[in-house]
Amino acid sequence: MPFNEDQRLPPSVATPLVTQSSFSWWGLLGMLLVFLLILLVSLWVIRRLNQAGIRNMNVSWARVIDRQILGGQQSLYLVEIAGQLQVLGGSDHHLVKITEINDPVVAAEILQEIATRPNERMEGWAQSLQKLLKRPSPKKEAFSTELERLLEEAEK
Questions:
Q1: Is residue 132 within 8 Å of residue 123, measured between CB atoms?
Q2: Model pTM?
Q3: What's the domain range around 72?
Q4: Statement to judge: residues 42 and 88 lie in one domain
Q5: In total, how many domains does the chain have?
Q6: Are residues 106 and 65 in the same domain?
Q7: pLDDT in tens, 81-116
Q8: How many CA atoms lie within 13 Å of 69's alpha carbon, on the beta-carbon side?
């Protein structure tokens, strides 16, 4: 028997027009925690990828001491190449020597400023989480011993 528009269903079969909202604060809190977890993991991955270019250079005659991002894809690099401190300007496709630092007093001031600069890291529990996830590198020398070596070379 076909259904006509004139025929009505009994009230027990009809669907209610107004449904109750099943809003859950626990569901909202869980979704917020998942979002924050994804955000923190993404920030960690981005920082690791940004630092990967500097850390991959494992030659004894050249070391990247510091990098300052100027904007976009442009950066300044303070590097030690064969015992000489040099400032390089770089982008994705181009690297230019800007100057060489020959004055030992200026070199010592720059290295001292780098050594005393506060770390730019997330504070609180996120920082402790980052310390737990960081793997120590057995090949790398400690920064303080490297700084002392560079200061001694600059004084010579």
A1: no
A2: 0.43
A3: 59-118
A4: no
A5: 2
A6: yes
A7: 888 889 999 888 888 999 998 888 888 888 888 888
A8: 7
